[in-house]
Each structure stands twice: as structure tokens, then as C-alpha cells.
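Predict the 3D structure for this chain.
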Amino acid sequence: MKEINTLKAGQEIFLSGTIYTARDQAHKRLTETIKSGRRLPIELKGAIIYYCGPTQTPKGKIIGSCGPTTSSRMDTFTPLLLSRGLKAMIGKGDRSKEVKEVIKKYKGVYFVTYAGCGALLSKFVKKAKIAAYSELGPEAILKLEVKDFPLIVAIDANGRSIYGKV
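Done. Predicted structure below.
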């Protein structure tokens, strides 16, 4: 995502490319892996993490319902992941003051997407496969290929936020 620094809070975009799903348990494991000095199962540099735990995939579909989860639950893990190259996050709801500051520090971006519309959002997923932690079931990290995934810039790389000041 080369143009990340040009995005403005409140701007709507349609993302096409690779994103990873990760929720609480996956974030905990990623953080523990970093702290222990071991190699991560996914490349964080330039990555986008979607705070999502899809439902079971219906027969004939690529993925089940895949709506965003509350982002603030990942706030304790976010500074470390951003320091390791994470570029963007997708979820719902406001972020802590600390997270807003590290988004600005590392020139990341936080997107929100439409909550309560997981079945609709699944239509923008073109490929899905397990990338790590399959034993976590719906909290496993999935690698998704998305096309025109609808997003709103909630916190831009300059720290501007749709939720108010940092």
C-alpha cells in the first residue's frame, strides 16, 4: 500500500490485495513469538491485519461471514506489531490514545469497515487459506485475497481520526 501516507481520516476506499485475519489469541501468539525472538509465521512488514474471525465456510463459498470485531481488544498488542512493520489494521470502533500515537509514529493506518454486514463483506473475499495457528479454529490467521473491500480511514498516518483528537 504505497499511497498510505496520502489517505485522510474519513476517506472511503476499496482495497484489493492481501490481508490477514487475526483476533485476540492470534495477536497474543504473535506477540509472544516476537518477545521470544522466534520467527513469525507471517511477514508483518507492510502487512494489513483484519480483526476478524470468520464463521464456518458454507459449502460452495470461499469464506463464511467475515465482519469486523472490536479493535480495542487488540490495543495492548498493536504497538509491538506496528514497530515490527505492520502497516494497517481493519476493525470497528475507536482505538486507545497510545495506539493512535503509535499509528502516527510508524505511519500506519487504521481502517474501519461495516459492522453487522459480515455476509456482505464475504463477497469481497476472492481467496482464503489458513496462514498460521490452525489449531485456534476461527481465531486462526487466514490469508485473504480481497477485491474492492470497502473501508473507511478511521485514523490516518498523520494521526487524524474520525473519532477526534489523539
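The longest strand covers residues 141-155.
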